[in-house]
Amino acid sequence: MEHSVIEFGWNGAFLSGLFSIILIDVILSGDNSIVIALAVKTLPAEKRRLGIIIGAGAAAVMRIAFTFIASHLMQVPYLKLVGGLLILWIALKLLSENEDADPASRQVRTMFHAIWIIMVADFTMSLDNVLGVAGASKGSALLLWFGLGLSIPLVMFASGMLSKLMDRFPVIVLLGAMVLGKVGGEMIVGDPALRKYFEDIPHVHMGGSSLGAGLVVIVYLWMKHRAKSKTADSAS
C-alpha cells in the first residue's frame, strides 16, 4: 500500500510537470513563431515553408545548447539589455520590410536574410523559454527533452499559420511587431545591471513592455506618414 501511494505521488508530480511544460511551450513559443512568420513573409510564397523549417530548427538547436548554460547566462550583466535592444531593432526592421510599398523590393529578400533575422531573435528570446521548461521539469531529463522537442512542432505550426494570416490581415504584422517590442522592453528593464535603478518603481515590467510596444506603434505611424508624403510629392 505504501509503495502504491509513493508511486502515485511520483506519477502525480510527473504529470504536473508535464502539464506545466506543455503550457509553457504554448505560451512562450508564440514570440518565436511571430519572429519567424514576420521574417518569412518577405520571402516568395514557395520558399516560406523551407524558411519556417530552417528557422524552427535553428531555434531548437539553440534551446538545446542554452539548456546547459541558461541559468548562468540570465545573470550576466547587460546581456538582457543588449538582447532587448536587439529584439526592438528586429521588430522595427521587420515592420519596415513588411511595410515596403514596392512589391519588387520584397522579392529580393533572400532565404539567408530571413534565417539570419530568425536566428538573432531566437538567440535572445530562447533563454526565457529554456529557463521555464528547465524549472518545470524539476530535474527530470525526460521532461526536459520532451519540452524542448515539443517546442519545435509548435513553432513550425504557429509560424505557418501566422504567415498566412498576415497575408490576409496586414494589421497582424503590426500586432506581431508590437509583441516583439513588448518582449524587448521587458528584457531591458529586467537586466540585472539595471535592476537597482528600477527596483523602487511599481509595475516596472509592465511599463517596460508598454514602452517597447509603444515605440513600435510610433515608428509604424511615422513610416505611414512618410509613405503618404512621398506619394503626395510624386503625384505633384
Description:
It is a single chain. With 236 residues, this protein is mostly helical. The protein has helices spanning 2-40, 45-67, 70-73, 79-98, 103-107, 111-137, 141-168, 171-189, 195-198, 204-235. Helix 4 (79-98) runs antiparallel to helix 8. The longest helix has 39 residues, at 2-40.
Could you give the topology of this structure?
Blueprint: H1 2-40, H2 45-67, H3 70-73, H4 79-98, H5 103-107, H6 111-137, H7 141-168, H8 171-189, H9 195-198, H10 204-235
Helix pairs in contact: 1-2, 1-6, 1-7, 1-8, 2-6, 2-7, 4-6, 4-8, 4-10, 6-7, 8-10
What is the gist of this entry?
The chain has 236 residues and is mostly helical.
Query: What value does the average pLDDT take?
Result: 75
Largest sheet: none
Could you give the order of the helices and strands?
HHHHHHHHHH
Structural class: mainly alpha
**Unreliably modeled segments:** 1-10, 103-108
Q: Give the number of DSSP strands.
A: 0
Cα radius of gyration in angstroms: 20 Å
Distance between the termini: 88 Å
The percent range for helix content is: over 70%
So how many helices?
Answer: 10
Bin the strand percentage: under 5%
Shape type: globular
